[in-house]
Each structure stands twice: as structure tokens, then as C-alpha cells.
Amino acid sequence: MAETVLIHSSAEAPPVHPDRAVVVLDVIRASTTAVTALAQGRRVFPVVSVREARVVAARLSQPLLAGELEGQTPPGFDETNSPAAIEARTDFGRPLVLLSSSGTKTINEARGRAVYVACIRNALAQTMLLIERHPHVAIVGAATKGQFRLEDQLCAARIAEGLIAAGYRPVGRTADLVDRCRDQPLSNIGSGASANYLRRSGQDRDLDFVLGHIDDLDAAFELIDGEIIQVSASSDHARAPGEPTHEIPA
Predict the structure, then answer these.
(1) If one looks up domain 4-224 in CATH, what number appears?
(2) Domain spans of the chain?
(3) Cβ 37 vs Cβ 68: under 8 Å
(4) Predicted confidence (pLDDT) per residue in 157-214, tens digit
(5) How far apart, in whole angstroms, are the C-alpha atoms of residue 227 and residue 47?
(6) Alpha carbon distance 43, 92 (integer Å)
(7) pTM for the model
(8) Which residues contact 246 (CB under 8 A, 6 or more apart)?
(9) Contact 182, 174 (CB under 8 A)
């Protein structure tokens, strides 16, 4: 059977395929926040509720709690769901417990199969690893307020286009989405609903961060036993906790 790639959003019920690896995207902002923390050498634990965040944090040493629910940072959290805020911190040894309204929920809903967390920072590396490891792939955009947001569509299309070039057969609406996104520059993210929200809420630095970090990380990140772990193309080596990731020099 030929390799296949499917793009859909978490608001949709995808066709069932038991062997399909899942790549979760929430470019603005949860997957970018997680990948940024991992690039600092942090351990990262995505959770679905404040209660779970506190349970996970209780078994870690000096955890850093970051996240939002419906745009609000929960009481007692150290940061909101912000890649720029995480990038600015220097306490790299503190593991990150991350909560978001849609992204971390989508990551956890995909458990039970191979699950990767990606963003624009590592779209190329994620594509290469998928080609090496998985004949069937679903790229899932975390629907925010039920919407498949522009930034996730563009990132999904970049990954899918690389897979199609490697011989994967697009299924569902994947080919149409790739064609529609092919000539769109990533700067178009700035005109999307998520970008407008960041501007209205005074969080422009996260938009600048997303647009300023494109394929600058040579690593992919997999959810294993509730923790996101670095894995690399051409290697089955998983990062030891606290070991920093490899960044491609600008």
C-alpha cells in the first residue's frame, strides 16, 4: 500500500487508520511554546487541565507552569502560553508543565499511537523524520474556537508538501489545501485570526517570535509517556532529560 498523508483539524472526525502517525500543530501558540522549551533543554509535559498540571508538577523538581485557558493564565502559573516568554527565561533546568485551551488537549487526545509535536521552527526536520519512520501520517491542526487556523494550515501544508514530494499520496482534502497554501508566504500568518487576537491582547511579541523562527531547529519531538522528547531524523536516539537540542545556526 502506498504511503499516505492526511491533513485535518481537531474539530473534524478523521478517517480511522490504526497505523497513522499524528503530527499536532498549534503554531499560535502551544506547539511553538513546547518546541521552544525543548530547544532550551527543558523537559516538557503537556496537560489538559489545571488539576492535571498541579498533579504533574507535584512530582517534578522546581517545575515551571505555563499556559492559558480561554486566554487567561490560571492562578499560580508562572507564565502564560508564550514562546517569547519561555525563550526569555534562563532557568533552563526547570521542567515545563504546559496547558492550553486547544493545543495540549489535541496532543493528549492523540495518545495511543505515534504522536509528534511540531511548528514552523522544525517543519523540515519533522518532515524528514516522518519519511524515515511512518508510511501513513495525519497532520492535525488544533482547532481554536472550532477553527482550523491559517498558521496551522500553512505549517501543515509545508510538511505535507514534503511528504508528497517523497511519494506519499494525499488523501481527503490534503491536496487542495497544499495547492491553496503553496504560494502563500508565511508572513500571511500575520493576517489571521490568531495574529489579530495577539495584537488585540497586547501579545505581539509572540507573533514576532513565530515569524522570526522558521526552520531553525533540526529536531523532531515525540510524545512518550506523557512527556515530549526530542528525536532526530537518521537516528532512533531520544534526548536524555535536560540534554539540549541542536539548533541550526542562523
Answers:
(1) 3.90.1560.10
(2) 4-224
(3) no
(4) 999 999 999 999 999 999 999 999 999 999 999 999 999 999 999 999 999 999 999 9
(5) 10
(6) 9
(7) 0.91
(8) 217, 218, 219, 232
(9) no
